[in-house]
Amino acid sequence: MLDLKLYKSENRPTWCPGCGDFGILNAIKQALAQLEIWPHEVLFVSGIGCGSKLPDYINANGFTTLHGRALPIAQGAKLANPGLHVIAVTGDGDGYGIGGNHFLHAIRRNINITHIVENNMVYGLTKGQYSPTSAKGFISSTTPEGAIERAVNPLALALANGGTFVARGFSGDPKHLAEIIAQAIQHPGYALVDVLQPCVIYNRVNTYEFYEQRVYKLEETDHDPTNPEQAWERAHEWGERIPIGVIYRETGVPTYEEQVSVLQGGGPAQTPPRLLTEAEREALLAELA
Amino acid sequence: MPVQDLSLKLAGEAGQGVESNGAGFARALTRAGLYVYTASDYMSRIRGGHNSYLIRASAEKVRVHRDHLHLLLAFNPQAVTTHLGELVPEGAIIYDEGMKVPEAQVAAAGVQLFPLPLRELAEKVGGSRIMVNTAALGAATAVMGLDLSHVESVILDNFGSKKGAAVAEANLKVARAAYETAGERYADRFPWKLPKVANAPRRYLLNGNQAIAMGALAGGCRFISAYPMTPASSIFEWLTAQGPKYGVVSKQMEDEIAAITMAIGASYVGARAMTATSGGGLSLMVEALGLAGMAEVPLVVVNAMRPGPSTGMPTRTDQGDLLFVTHLAHGEFPRLILAPGNVRQCFEAGYRAFNLADKYQTPVIILTDGFLASSLETVDLEDLPFDEVTIDRGELLDGAALDQLEERYARFRVTESGISPRALPGHPKAVYTTPSDEHTEYGAFESEDAANRLQQHPKRMRKLETARAEMQGPTLYGPADAEITLVGWGSTLGALFEAVEILNEERPGTANLLHFTDLWPFPPAAEEALARTRRLVVVEENYTGQFARLLASETGRKADHLITRFDGRAITPDYVLQNLKEAAVHAGSQAV
User: Fold this and answer.
1) Interface confidence: ipTM more than 0.90
2) What is the residue range of B460's domain?
3) Which residues of A touch B384 (CB under 8 A)?
4) CB distance B249–A65 less than 8 Å?
5) Domains located in chain A, CATH noted
6) What is the pTM of this model?
């Protein structure tokens, strides 16, 4: 167990008092300390949104990128340097809305990255518009009559698309969340951690109280996370009871990078670029003669 | 003008092997010691439609194709009607004798008909009608006065490895039979002969996309993520095919946004990474290019232009993206733009782009186009200058340098050059954050502090001024003092070079050429080069004269005359000469 102080950033979070992002930040630090991952061994890649400011608030390598694009950037970094732990951090709009296409493909691609989604079911940084995970009927500045679409179900999407690690946490229980994140980091392959996170300013529906009354921990039940049918059922459970914990875990599935022949000796960023040898030049030229 | 200069065209439907046979024949001619230039003309469909493949060959270097033909290999009746007008008098059409051709029309054009039992030979000698192409190429070889050995060697290479010895042998038999029949019947009647070149050095046949990809590989590119789009895909495919041997990671992504951002991720951690696309894809990549600019991530992007807007003309060529590329993305950030003009320059751009990207920690865009991407050019060894390739990573701090770091690492340190020493993620002494927001020199963001912005934004923009000093060109071709100066950029190099040659042969001192490959930042030598010119004729493949506008805005010099082409076809020497004549630009133009 490393000292949590290692991850302390000089920058103070500008999140609103009571924001669920604090709990997520603490849980991430806890998981890194527990797994003894040093700040220089991990790269956080975030998008844009309140939660995507997280890399600035933790002492570790970080890249705050574009709205929706954290996943392909994280995957590129991982393929080029498989030696780094790569953690993508996005919000729900970022990860499931504008970045939805990348989400679908990251799941099935199964590159060994961790994806933490700070899912507050509202657009916070742009001040209160509805999001892809807002419940049907959710009233916001852009849905005055209530959201008409059904909410995205990220867990079911991940399962349907061949996800090998699908989990949900709650920012109000950082200790439990840290456990899930630690398992996600250790999972070989794309690992989704959807985090229920209250927005204390713009979401008056999905509050701490709302979740505290509903969440229950899967590991305290007889849920078998290796059972796809049970996972599918839990992924659709949303109402009086909301499950948190590891919904689904499939082991023995090779990661994308394990199946790429040129990556078997490490990634291209791990070796300095070099000039071609005489023999290599001749081989290229011979094909053109 | 080169002597013994012959142009032939294969024409037929998509799926009739026009392109593959044309490329194979171009290789045979290169092996015969000739210089070749090809121009393919095909439609965006897998079967049907009309395709043609032009091959120009000469014992002297050829840099472009011409508008006229000496020989047409017509695989369907449409080929005859479509291309008859391109044939010079005494030119000939080789076709299957069973095919109907408009004989009177052909005769009126002074063109000869060389009917041959191509299909019969294919079926009876080879055992398959599909070998009709091979028969036509055997016949063409005979009437041009070449021996068949080089065609045979290409047949062996193409079929020997892929389809087995039996298919190769059948094709060889068909080629020989057609060669003999055509030689007996028509060799005496065809006026143009290609010479037998003794002891020619080994030469190479490749297109601009292969040259860019090979230059990139030679320059240490080891990562490409892309999304297929004509005419850029062959760069991606070439690097993918070579990948396993050289350690290139190649990844097709879900869209162009993912393609470029994945490359940014790979480059961020230290790989030499690129993507390749065409205008529509580049439009999707725009925001990410701004990210690379703000985050100071080296990145190489190839944009192979085709006529737009929107889907435009997918298989055609154009130079309409120039001002888009000089301005793309919101806000201001330094970007470098290279527009190679031939195979050699493509190779050079391929590795130079990576050095420039690393040195200035910003995007470098290689602008090519459908024509340069797909035209095969025969080049000498010196045109693929592997010995000149360098790998310069600029101010990249290695592990040893970081170990000795005494103060806190500032990723975005303000420097005079604008270049901040770069550390890759992974070293304990260089743990930092890169935001897409404006940031401090340590990478902290939410710093909308005006004073900080006044440090960081000019720091980034200063890189452009630093880079300007090493922007090359323009290159002057032809006499130093000429009545008119043609000005071009990118793939029109060959056409303008030859137009100048022809003009000066007719009337010495008429024209020279100023050709630009480095377009942004605008090369500092441009003003002086322009000062020595008289009448300036800008030639480019777009409607609005984008380069002429760029030239005026960067140097204050306005073009005296503008020649444009935007029908999706490449500018040829003939097109330039015709336009100069019509506009009576130069004194000799009435006589041309």
Assistant:
1) yes
2) 395-470
3) 285
4) no
5) 4-286 (3.40.50.970)
6) 0.97
